[in-house]
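Can't attach files on this board, so I'm pasting raw text. These are the components:
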Amino acid sequence: MKDLTDLTIAEAREGLAERSFSAVELTQAHLAAIKSANRALNAFVLETPERALQMAETSDGRLAKGEGGALEGIPLGIKDLFCTKDVRTTACSHILDRFTPTYESTVTANLWDAGAVMLGKLNNDEFAMGSSNETSFYGEVVNPWRREGSDAPLVPGGSSGGSSAAVAARLCLGATATDTGGSIRQPAAFTGTVGLKPTYGRCSRWGIVAFASSLDQAGPITRTVRDSAIMLAAMAGHDPKDATSADIAVPDFGAAVGQGVKGLTIGIPKEYRVDGMAPEIEVLWQQGIAWLTEAGATIKDISLPHTMYALPSYYIVAPAEASSNLARYDGVRYGLREPGKDVISMYENTRESGFGAEVKRRVLIGTYVLSAGYYDAYYLKAQKVRTLIKRDFDQAFERVDAILTPTTPAPAFAAGEKSGDPLEMYLNDIFTVTVNMAGLPGISVPAGLSSEGTPLGLQVIGKAFDEETMFRVAQVVEDAAGLIAKPNDWWSKL
Amino acid sequence: MSVDRATVFRIARLARIAITDEEAKRLESELTGILDWVAQLDELDTSNVEPMTRVEAMTMKMREDEVTGGFKAADIVKNAPQEDDHYFVVPKIVE
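---
Top answer:
Structure tokens for the assembled complex are below.
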């Protein structure tokens, strides 16, 4: 039998149902993996083994009575952006490092209702602002993948770098993540995992530390497309506590997964062929097109003319909303307070000490673009550009059922390689950010390896609230690519 | 769009973040770089475009006007650095 940590969620569910192993055994196997790996990978910022074993015991009780939920006994990692009741939640920021929520986020509550087991809280870029997990107050996460013949640490992507590294290194069967500009899909592409950002409104944002409220969405990182569908089905659903959560029934995503692409039309946007894109990314993309054609899909060239404006408009909208959302961290309500000579200097000193450099940069940009006289020129302008980006997609989706693109313009880079220049780091999100700006669902599927032996991903973009078609396409890509090899374990031997 | 040192300090004051001279110097060039880069949006004529406010047209839902929570004062102040009898304690504001 496979190692318990090597199972997919779908396989683990079967094994648990057949009583081949218990939920406690499954959880113990993962706790042991975390223990031997975390010093090297730094994927978990908080391990909750006692709680995990307690939840697993409860799951075993339910499974024995045949009452198990959809994720009964499945051990998961939770990005530290999700508030977990009585369990420290920091967004990996110093300003929140003493914050213990008195409530549970809706998404995690949904997962626990479905029977899932929490192994701990996962590292991320501070307040989810970053593409390499290098901005975390708790230090960098190391990608379990390395370049062939090299020991140099690679980044796991970001902001959900703890989630992607933990899933790739077999420290959990799946993980929650959040995506504001690519923070689920880019780390998934860098680690050979499946990362899904649902349609805006599919998952409740209640209880998730807010970054940019009009863009933020929760989603899963898993090792297969089927597991992604299983997790999303449990996470999604209408929530009266989030006015932007959609009151739309959650479809049976699992049923869509195996339906194939016969009869579907897939769009290939010419604007995603950008300068500076690694040639092997183009080769991978062509391979993806060939796979879908062989599986019976029709390929159609499309144009999304405003693609190049998505990233600059994102860097107005996201910092503007972040500067508003992060105004609440004032030294009064959440843990950290640095004294000052009066109340204003107390605020200033607390935020100076509590926020890292990237967060400060974005709060300042956001404050600038929202300051008197600039609102129309920046924020309003960017929201109008969003309309144009969305219109591009609307017009394309009159002719196609889904869109295929690369997830990132290059494979995982080395730690420190891009942290000197914010703009260079931002360009990582060039293919993913359009999807957030338009509110659409997108999924990154591992599709091959780079010349360096590191994973590469293809992205499937669906129509709003049509994750089902997206899953159909993603499964065909996964089947054709074959599940890529897991990274060689060097981390548990350190 | 060039951001000068004085503007950096003014924004930092608005954002309630204390910054050092050294940070201000770095931010001056970083913020200028980012704002120059976003200026490419000026190429687009958006005079007849509505700003995007939602992904799909949805009507805001109304709920019954009833008590749904409350009496959670202890929860609310639980993470405060300083609290007293369910009040947040802050430095003196009025002399």
